Amino acid sequence: MRFDQLQNWLDWQLQLHPTAIDMGLTRVSRVADRLEIGSSAFKHSASTVITVAGTNGKGSCVKTLEALLITSGKTVGSFTSPHIVRYNERIRLNGDQVSDHQLCQAFEDIDQAREGDSLTYFEFSTLAALLIFKQAKVDFILLEVGLGGRLDSTNIIDTDLAIVTSVDIDHCEYLGNDRESIGREKAGIFRSGVPAIVADANMPLSVRAYADDIGAELLCIDEQFRYSTANKRFHWSCLPGASYSEFEVICEQPRLPLPSIAAALMALTVLSVLPTQEQVSGVLANIELTGRLQSVEIDGIEFVLDVAHNPAAAESLAQSIDEHDSRECYAICAMMADKDIDAVIQPLVNKVDHWFLPNLPDNDRSLPSSVLSSKVKSLDETAALQEFDSIVEAMDSVRQQCVHLTDKPVVYVFGSFFTVEAALNYLQIDVQ
């Protein structure tokens, strides 16, 4: 074996390929075929594959699918990215992270099958997931697209059901500068004759056009299924005239993105594996995902951790604040320099009472807190804000300022996966 420690494998993978992102399926498909985990291999397996793309909400959709399928007694392999704290988060069997040993063995098998083909870090993770899932003979394989869809390495597998959770502006250098271009890239996971579920109520025309061109069975929110909320209750149903059961779900409103949950419910309805009303209600009432409106209390102060880092995610976060919080609102925010900073901050300007802006000193991509401070100030001249050298200093300051208050604020921590990772480490919370 090339390495016997997981971290050594990961360090090596980061250096192997000349670019971190190399869109295309040719190299990874060749290696997959040598490992007998290419699309032809899965066509003859008993596993049902669900592929999930989208600008936001992919991880929440996969988490919902996973929880509901496990409740139904199905075995499930889930592949998601990026991880927040540990690489093992990316690959789960029946909800549990795979071990270092399983990953090292999968990487060794992939390395032996490369035959000189160079692979990216993400391509290694995709192949490892497929290899582990095939060996485990799971009933369902859930694949979260890493970037786009059409040229993402997860798309080497012909899916049995495709989901697009949302289409918004992000990763323009790879996917295009408008929603129509980005939508076409995400629709690339669709297959002829296969159900394709779209949870974006403002679906780009390019998505429908591509589905029509290839003959995918397009199922859209507000056309074939819908959800609504009232008095903190969630109601989901197929619409009259849909060719599927008019099963209804009524339960306590979950904290995960509701379009993603609606898409997951439709997917399992289509596949005839949706659990009972009682089981669904129980799952949705308790479902949570690390870094997605994750609530943690310390010193009587509620910290809400969210990986929101693009404009659409920030809009969703602002909506959640409106729906769930009447308390004073603090924000700890650190972002990457390559993001649309103004468009992320703007929806939250009138929601946040005090900004705490830390540096991420160990991250070369991060935006200096002084620059972010200027951005916030340009959008809100009266903003109360403080700058810090690290997340640790920002979290300490919030605690010191709030611990003796009778009416404590809620503190939202957001801006990137790295921001949430630093907060989790500070709070000493492990990712399950």
TrEMBL record:
<comment type="pathway">
    <text>Cofactor biosynthesis; tetrahydrofolate biosynthesis; 7,8-dihydrofolate from 2-amino-4-hydroxy-6-hydroxymethyl-7,8-dihydropteridine diphosphate and 4-aminobenzoate: step 2/2.</text>
</comment>
<dbReference type="InterPro" id="IPR018109">
    <property type="entry name" value="Folylpolyglutamate_synth_CS"/>
</dbReference>
<comment type="pathway">
    <text>Cofactor biosynthesis; tetrahydrofolylpolyglutamate biosynthesis.</text>
</comment>
<feature type="domain" description="Mur ligase C-terminal">
    <location>
        <begin position="291"/>
        <end position="416"/>
    </location>
</feature>
<dbReference type="InterPro" id="IPR004101">
    <property type="entry name" value="Mur_ligase_C"/>
</dbReference>
<comment type="function">
    <text>Functions in two distinct reactions of the de novo folate biosynthetic pathway. Catalyzes the addition of a glutamate residue to dihydropteroate (7,8-dihydropteroate or H2Pte) to form dihydrofolate (7,8-dihydrofolate monoglutamate or H2Pte-Glu). Also catalyzes successive additions of L-glutamate to tetrahydrofolate or 10-formyltetrahydrofolate or 5,10-methylenetetrahydrofolate, leading to folylpolyglutamate derivatives.</text>
</comment>
<keyword id="KW-0460">Magnesium</keyword>
<dbReference type="InterPro" id="IPR036565">
    <property type="entry name" value="Mur-like_cat_sf"/>
</dbReference>
<keyword id="KW-0436">Ligase</keyword>
<dbReference type="InterPro" id="IPR013221">
    <property type="entry name" value="Mur_ligase_cen"/>
</dbReference>
<dbReference type="Pfam" id="PF08245">
    <property type="entry name" value="Mur_ligase_M"/>
</dbReference>
<dbReference type="Pfam" id="PF02875">
    <property type="entry name" value="Mur_ligase_C"/>
</dbReference>
<keyword id="KW-0479">Metal-binding</keyword>
<dbReference type="InterPro" id="IPR036615">
    <property type="entry name" value="Mur_ligase_C_dom_sf"/>
</dbReference>
<comment type="similarity">
    <text>Belongs to the folylpolyglutamate synthase family.</text>
</comment>
<keyword id="KW-0067">ATP-binding</keyword>
<feature type="domain" description="Mur ligase central">
    <location>
        <begin position="52"/>
        <end position="192"/>
    </location>
</feature>
<keyword id="KW-0289">Folate biosynthesis</keyword>
<protein>
    <recommendedName>
        <fullName>Dihydrofolate synthase/folylpolyglutamate synthase</fullName>
        <ecNumber>6.3.2.12</ecNumber>
        <ecNumber>6.3.2.17</ecNumber>
    </recommendedName>
</protein>
<dbReference type="InterPro" id="IPR001645">
    <property type="entry name" value="Folylpolyglutamate_synth"/>
</dbReference>
<keyword id="KW-0547">Nucleotide-binding</keyword>
